[in-house]
Amino acid sequence: xxxxxxxxxxxxxxxxxxxxxxxxxxxxxxxxxxxxxxxxxxxxxxxxxxxxxxxxxxxxxxxxxxxxxxxxxxxxxxxxxxxxxxxxxxxxxxxxxxxxxxxxxxxxxxxxxxxxxxxxxxxxxxxxxxxxxxxxxxxxxxxxxxxxxxxxxxxxxxxxxxxxxxxxxxxxxxxxxxxxxxxxxxxxxxxxxxxxxxxxxxxxxxxxxxxxxxxxxxxxxxxxxxxxxxxxxxxxxxxxxxxxxxxxxxxxxxxxxxxxxxxxxxxxxxxxxxxxxxxxxxxxxxxxxxxxxxxxxxxxxxxxxxxxxxxxxxxxxxxxxxxxxxxxxxxxxxxxxxxxxxxxxxxxxxxxxxxxxxxxxxxxxxxxxxxxxxxxxxxxxxxxxxxxxxxxxxxxxxxxxxxxxxxxxxxxxxxxxxxxxxxxxxxxxxxxxxxxxxxxxxxxxxxxxxxxxxxxxxxxxxxxxxxxxxxxxxxxxxxxxxxxxxxxxxxxxxxxxxxxxxxxxxxxxxxxxxxxxxxxxxxxxxxxxxxxxxxxxxxxxxxxxxxxxxxxxxxxxxxxxxxxxxxxxxxxxxxxxxxxxxxxxxxxxxxxxxxxxxxxxxxxxxxxxxxxxxxxxxxxxxxxxxxxxxxxxxxxxxxxxxxxxxxxxxxxxxxxxxxxxxxxxxxxxxxxxxxxxxxxxxxxxxxxxxxxxxxxxxxxxxxxxxxxxxxxxxxxxxxxxxxxxxxxxxxxxxxxxxxxxxxxxxxxxxxxxxxxxxxxxxxxxxxxxxxxxxxxxxxxxxxxxxxxxxxxxxxxxxxxxxxxxxxxxxxxxxxxxxxxxxxxxxxxxxxxxxxxxxxxxxxxxxxxxxxxxxxxxxxxxxxxxxxxxxxxxxxxxxxxxxxxxxxxxxxxxxxxxxxxxxxxxxxxxxxxxxxxxxxxxxxxxxxxxxxxxxxxxxxxxxxxxxxxxxxxxxxxxxxxxxxxxxxxxxxxxxxxxxxxxxxxxxxxxxxxxxxxxxxxxxxxxxxxxxxxxxxxxxxxxxxxxxxxxxxxxxxxxxxxxxxxxxxxxxxxxxxxxxxxxxx
Length: 1063
Fold this sequence. Notes:
Elements: H1 26-70, H2 74-89, H3 93-123, H4 132-141, H5 146-155, E1 157-163, H6 172-188, H7 195-214, H8 225-259, E2 270-274, H9 288-316, E3 321-322, H10 324-341, E4 350-357, E5 360-367, H11 375-383, H12 396-405, E6 412-414, E7 420-422, H13 447-459, H14 462-467, H15 478-501, H16 517-533, H17 537-554, E8 560-566, H18 567-581, H19 591-603, H20 617-636, E9 637-643, H21 648-668, E10 680-685, H22 688-702, H23 705-715, E11 718-724, H24 726-732, H25 734-755, E12 758-764, H26 776-781, E13 791-797, H27 799-805, H28 808-827, H29 836-857, H30 862-869, H31 898-907, H32 918-927, H33 931-940, H34 942-957, H35 960-970, H36 974-998, H37 1008-1037, H38 1042-1059
Parallel strand pairs: 1-2, 1-13, 2-8, 3-4, 8-9, 9-10, 10-11, 11-12, 12-13
Antiparallel strand pairs: 4-5, 6-7
Helix pairs in contact: 1-2, 1-3, 1-7, 1-37, 2-37, 3-6, 3-37, 3-38, 4-8, 4-28, 6-7, 8-9, 8-17, 8-28, 9-15, 9-17, 9-20, 10-11, 10-15, 10-16, 11-15, 15-16, 16-17, 18-20, 18-21, 19-21, 20-21, 21-22, 22-25, 24-25, 25-29, 29-32, 32-36, 33-34, 35-36, 35-37, 37-38
Protein name: phosphoenolpyruvate carboxylase
Family: Belongs to the PEPCase type 1 family.
Cofactor: Mg(2+)
């Protein structure tokens, strides 16, 4: 769960509505009390009434201490806090663990209740100012032309890229149960339930809460990259698959309301991407084989999901009227199926057919010579049924998916609306044209076709024959014939992916498979047009339209996989290659020499890399990865992202390695290389210096003759650039990083405009404020003017994926919010700084904040203090991600990834990286007499306003009482204790100057809802923090104590659940 989900926690659009002081939280309180009482029942059963009363008293003590602290009565709060600490310090482990688990589960379940409350408020008509209907209407009122509005919406492109990061501590099993609890809370809201029905719902809630309590919250082993990929696909299947058509329908309805035209069928206003299985930056577990398997797994699941939809659609489309276009497609489809099955003349129709073309009755009696229509080819045309591969022979990856997600169904499946529908269809489709009766006049198939037929027949299941009897009846169902063919190709696609995953050469002799989305969309759109032409448009706009919308959103891969690797790995690979060939050391060349070499090789036709070249294992893995990229290309993969990019040669190096892989594969298959299948290469600028130099790097790259021609011919003059929020914040602090990112975007917009290239910015945001997190609507609306322009890619990471997209109704709302934010940023860009003086003073504050940040974290004994005062050293035992917490072993903070860096400080409630240096920068402005100017910047400049509001939120979440406890108990060295005292003093000063700047009397004064939610959570987080301190102290004296290690992990999970934005 998270607080940065663009929900009622924020009043981002002040022009639309002010932050309400009396936001109705009564319903949320009721839900939390209900869940809490059910959880208490579980706790009573485990520890008994006597111990339960003791636990309840401790929770009450924590609540009173927290409330007194919030009200400013620090003396009383400290007294109660000390008493709480004393009691928890002496609590036996067998009593402490249930208390920790109960508080952690309560925080997790209350997060579910908060998400449900958000959906409830939306359904009650709460005005947000962000829905498609509200935003499109407002734009027209502001003078936007309806045609301009239609074009902007139809051509808009938003891609959300899901990533796995080591902050998602909640097991997928528990996420699934949380989703079920959210559904039951929704049902419990119904006013028309009878007393018995109400009791049933509460009983089911009790069952689910009990199941959560009885489920182990700890992972016993680290997830593999494929486990993470399955997790992302699971979110898509359980939530986004249903949410996307509903979201697009909302946008289309609003567009028609205000422009008179529906959203075009082919519009791709939303897409999804993934890094799970493709992000190998610092993660040795992600290999070329893993990437290949992740791609095939996604395509297999995509085919399976479409298969379920097609099965349900075939039952619905029983109409006989069709357009001439569709009827011609029916004949082509039958002929193709006949040819595949090996029956004589593929045009052999013989029957008396009754059908309706274009709404006019017609009859056609056609006798075509040849061997006629064979039973298997006909069955394929009518039902699309082929025997499934036996379950035991499936690749282990797919068996895991089948057992975990129940994606394999032999005879039945749940459709998206929850109705049980036979997988092959209950009703036997009419045969058009009918096959010959088995009277001896049916010519026998011979040779290979007969063997194939016999093999198929022997594999047919008895139940399948019962569901699909041989006999038929008169009439024609053209839509079912088309959909039967679609179904068969989807089956073939699954079989193709199974073969690849099993290491076998795919056998595609039995028919085609879907390699790209347009192949799947073509027959579906033909059915859609036919229904509209024959007066059945209302049917066309049902399930069929939903499937078409999914095809243009998810494609045939669900989420195209990006490949990411650090630039130094490409440099090392080229260095070995040039040394092997006697050209010298590539890594020692300057930028000019590198560019000359790379350009010369790219302009030439001969291969640079021999198939038999001898290289190290690390370089071989790089080359193997590019081979996978060349094999799957743009049909399955998205972009190739270069981490730590700092020069134009970093991009050309990847282009050269891509080309070499294509040449190698083409030579092996005796084909010409397809250079149009090249992935777009995306440089990722992360550190402060790289952000400052990004404009010059891109200018030099786009001035390269080969690259400019390649960009124009292959990528339609579009260049994507990724901006890193995590490492820039860890490198320079949040204020300096945010300002550098803002200026970098302005420079990139200007540079690419000058070069005549369209820019797409890819924002690598994390979940926490320290890593660029926060409400997406707020983030998009505070970007520099011209930086969006209808195109945007953005990451969602860690716990944010489940929080934003785990529940269909929440996901639908999120998608609409993001879409309207992009539209507003395109048509009415955010205001730039009104005065040049504002920009200059931002430079001054940025420099001051960066200086302070680096002085503090680079000071003597800071690394030792960090490791003693936080649980960072213990993260190695957390089985929460496949990716190591460090880029390389050893070293200090510089080798630590940004995610665990922030995660560790969040655990102690100091949340240092999100605010360090900001107080000093603002104080400098106040001391120089610029307070009034800072207030004007806050009121008028969206960028500065959003930045200050998010900092204020983090300051409200931090708790110096808890942070001081970690220092008191875990830090022994006096110099290190002094560091902690200094940090807490800096926090107090930061709070003081932020309140002066905003004019608030208390933190989050303009956001009382969030303040109230924090107050509700703190009594449950505080005891977990205290117990964590106790456990850390004991565990560091006995690091092999298994129960203590488990207890520590439970506290880490609980605190993460309560703090929400953790990494």
